[in-house]
User: Fold this.
Amino acid sequence: MLSLAEADPNAAIRVLQATAGDDMPPIHQTTALYALGVAHRTVDELAESEACLQKAVELATEANEGTIRGDALLSLAATRAMAGEIDDAFSLLAEAEECPDPARTHARTQRAGWMARMGKVGEAIALFAESEVQLEAWDDRRWLGHLRNNRGLLFTYIGEFDAAEEDLRSALEIYSEAGWDVSRAEAEHNLGFLLTRRGDLVEALQLFRQAGETMARLGLDPSELPTDEAEALLLAGLPDRAVATSVAAVEELTAKNAQAKLAEALLIYARCALAAGDGSQSRTAAGLASKMFSEHGQPAWAARANLLQAASAERTPGDLRRMAAELMSGGLVAVSYTHLTLPTTWSRCCAGWWGEGVGGGGGG
Assistant:
């Protein structure tokens, strides 16, 4: 049931809603509700996800099934985080860590991802390593994939590109072999994100397209992909195509009121416009991005946007293009802060840090 939720969440919802009745044995009903909660979260149906997972936790508690209770608590934590209820999410995570293994190790793996998101890099890497030993001993392929997907992205952020690629390709292999298409698309996205930074732009763009096609086929939200694709096009020296792609991303995210992702998309658009020699559009987009980053409590990102805004002051198009090249070569390459995927698809889930309350989620 959980495999179907990871492979095709909409199909899982149809099947599980037709079969998960009160006449099922309690443990089977608990497992079905857990998988149904995961599937609902993946397609952004947070209220339905919470209702299913709450019921799964209750049934597992009544049946004294500690492991499934822990995994259901963990998944409920992801749904709460996506809804902006961060304190509740951490409380549920701590409760899951008190459950027996393998749920405890699953929770520790997820905590490592959240620690990475909070900037506790050393602690996160150590906790990932500790969890990996246990998951390998159990041959827990699903959670090994999630761990390596997240750790690979963390390694990307800190510039450990070889380690990042090893982890991300391992995660992609695990998901592909199992037929878990949702997670495979996310791993393709993350690997493309890494390869953009390594300069392997042809494969990066191919991976973005593959991920987008899979998400569209499954009826999932692919709105995060054009932002990263625009950055790859920009680094490939195609500013006009990058502008068109980034404009499409900004328009789509604006229509969805996806504030956390929109701020990043505006920053990418500002860079693309700068490279294309349009100082006016670059200044406007950078100013909006700076305001949104400040409101979201991201002063370092606001400072990047302010730098772009200042760089795009009244100059000739040629000056702007040269300045854009200097900024990129000098390290002003925006790293997506909406990108970290936990076992709960944190790339979308993290929007909940600012109470946006939209997004999907995979496993967990």
User: Anything to note?
Assistant: Confidence is low (pLDDT under 50) at residues 327-363. The chain has 19 helices and no strands.
